[in-house]
Amino acid sequence: MWMAHYIPIFLCFAWVLIFDFVFIVVPPICVNTWYFDLYMCGAPCFYTTYNGYYAIVEFVVNVVAPLAVITFANVFLIIRVIYQKIIHHQAVNWRRHRKMTFQLWLISSVYLAFWLPSTLSNIIRMTSIPTFFIDEADTMLFIVYFIPLLLPIVCLNTYPELLRKINELIRRRRARNRIGISTVRNVH
Domain limits at 83? Predict the structure, then answer.
């Protein structure tokens, strides 16, 4: 049973490492030219080989598919919870499920808010208008690097119990020097 949980995560990490190593670090079909005065140092050379076929595959597999999976999985999970309640003839207690719904919405909205503008502009650029947001493309790609920085903060805000425990730990570790008058008794 544990394999059903860990194999997909392992495959996701392995795919990214293998794909980036083969097509960016040691590309077999071209030579990378980097421009270090740009935000993103230029694009990998496989974006321009074979009429951009590899770029389209990379875009669909590494960007569009995760966005679609995150969106549909979150919607499916909420529908599944409601459906299970209906099947078991239980009332849907939204107070109880509000926390789960809020956590799903908050975490996925951070990811979608930063990736969706870049993804939509790339789709428009590939399909109809090649110069659509071309000047802002580097900035939009740079903005997605804020996701790993913001997700821990967002996750902490969805767990108030954890925030309380962290605050208690911080308060305990502070050294408290109390200043006051003390009486010393002489014992003979």
Answer: 11-172
